[in-house]
Amino acid sequence: MSYQSAKDAFAEWGVDTEAAMEALARIPISVHCWQGDDVVGFEGQSGASGGGIQATGNHPGRARTPDELRADLEFAYSMIPGKHRLNLHAFYMDTEETPDRDEIEYRHFAPWVDWAREQGIGLDFNPTFFAHTKADDNLTLSHPDKGIRDFWIEHGKRSREIAAKMGKELGTAAVNNIWVPDGSKDIPVDRMAARQRLEASLDQMLAPAHDAAHLRDAVESKLFGIGVEAMTVGSHEFYLGYAIRKGTLLCLDMGHFHPTENIADKLSSVALSVDELLLHVSRPMRWDSDHVILLDDAIRGMAQELVFADLLGRTHIGLDFFDATISRTAAWVIGVRNMQKALLEALLMPQARLKEAEAALDFTTRFMLTEELKDMPFSTVWAEFCARNERPCGKRLIDELAGYQTRVADRGR
Ligand SMILES: C[C@H](O)[C@H](O)[C@@H](O)C(=O)CO
Ligand SMILES: [Mn+2]
């Protein structure tokens, strides 16, 4: 089908494909650096603690240096329509020095900022509270030992300073997302004490004021991780309350809830109480919270809520998955494009008509519309969007992805 025919078909439904593509072009996705190297980082001083997360697989081509990671990212961005961001973790510093986590400074990340400026992209940031000997108890900010808590508070403060400077340098606020793995393998007897310690540590970490034009802090909850099956200190309820009371962003990771929960359903609820949201778009499967996202109902539902509830202006969309059994660059590219496709589909829906039917309790019309809409030529509009952005689709995309993977395969595993 030609684009003109698709445009006419959507126009019959009262939908303007040009407006939808313009809106999509304005939505940046924060691409997570850690898919490129299986969450290993560049510190070379990791402890045994994986923080309850694990990349599995042994596909060749893992990025082993900042230069390799940047080359992979440049390739990935060249396959993704639009301008996006990079989400950097603190243990991806680029320096010959070996600062411990409580010693990191902006200069250890300056090469990333220079590169981001060249690429014309913004940066987001995350303190790294895992893969370190001082996290081996699976406790950091809530550790009973004050010395360990202080170490991680300092790490968190420095991360915020670094993120704020990144935001200032690049002229776009960096979202600094705080996720700690703290929890208990077996049933604890003093949950309150652990949560009080986490709250007090967060308060200290977040006390230094930074310009909101440079830095936005987010807090991320989790249901459970490997080794912390009985209790996660930073649960959803903990951080929902914290974000509301303290004015931080709330991060919803789609892999951090019970598998039967609908994360899209949470957006409108929490958005009534917090100003801004951060999403970690992910796909949980059994024990894992981080499979590469598909263009499935969960992602479509999320995109539809963002568009229909008018939340795009106050939601930062980040991705969070890591799969080492497939090409890492293909995982990035297909994952980001899936998020964009879901957003485009939502933008191409006759929102007013659907809402009108629902408000009139005309559920038959809502049902007929949503089902018939599924036959609309979304893929033709997506292909047009890719073509206008000089990005390949279909077989050409697959050939490009396979070609790049072949070129990096000799890096070893
Ligand atoms: C590496 C990330 O910080 C991590 O995935 C975190 O966001 C998370 O989701 C942990 O399960
Ligand atoms: Mn996450």
TrEMBL record:
* Top EC class of this enzyme: isomerase
Q: Which Gene3D superfamilies match?
A: Divalent-metal-dependent TIM barrel enzymes
UniProt keyword Cytoplasm present: yes
UniProt-listed Pfam families: RhaA
Entry's EC annotation = 5.3.1.14
**Residues passing through the membrane, by range:** none
Provide the catalytic activity annotation.
Answer: L-rhamnopyranose = L-rhamnulose
Query: Which cofactors does this gene product need?
Result: Mn(2+)
Record localization: Cytoplasm
Q: Which SUPFAM superfamilies match?
A: Xylose isomerase-like
The biological process GO terms on file are:
L-lyxose metabolic process; rhamnose catabolic process
Q: GO molecular-function annotation terms?
A: L-rhamnose isomerase activity; manganese ion binding
Cofactor annotation remark: Binds 1 Mn(2+) ion per subunit.
Q: Which InterPro entries match?
A: L-rhamnose_isomerase, Rhamnose_isomerase, Xyl_isomerase-like_sf
Which NCBIfam families has this protein been placed in? PRK01076.1, rhaA
Which HAMAP family does this entry report, sorted A to Z?
A: RhaA
What family classification does the UniProt entry report for this protein? Belongs to the rhamnose isomerase family.
The name this protein carries in UniProt is L-rhamnose isomerase
Recorded source organism is Maritimibacter alkaliphilus HTCC2654
Lineage, top ranks: Bacteria, Pseudomonadati, Pseudomonadota, Alphaproteobacteria, Rhodobacterales
